[in-house]
# Entry
Amino acid sequence: MTALAKPGRMSLPALSRHLRVLEQARLIDRRRDGRVHAIRARPAGLKAVQEWIAQCAAGWEFSFNTLDELLKKEQRKEPTA
# Structure
């Protein structure tokens, strides 16, 4: 874990807490062999996050398109000076 903490200047207890959260979220796998921790990413764990972001993006796209149409309609209503 020292190798992970050093580049980011993070304390070992802080890194351990972060890794625990990632492990609980099933985004990493951690195998301990004595004092050595083997950590690997679980990209499949991000699939649910990617799906949620895609749903949010679709909703935002719809909202922005609706707002754009409303603004264009309001501009057409304004009298020209």
Q: What stands out?
A: The longest helix spans residues 47-77.
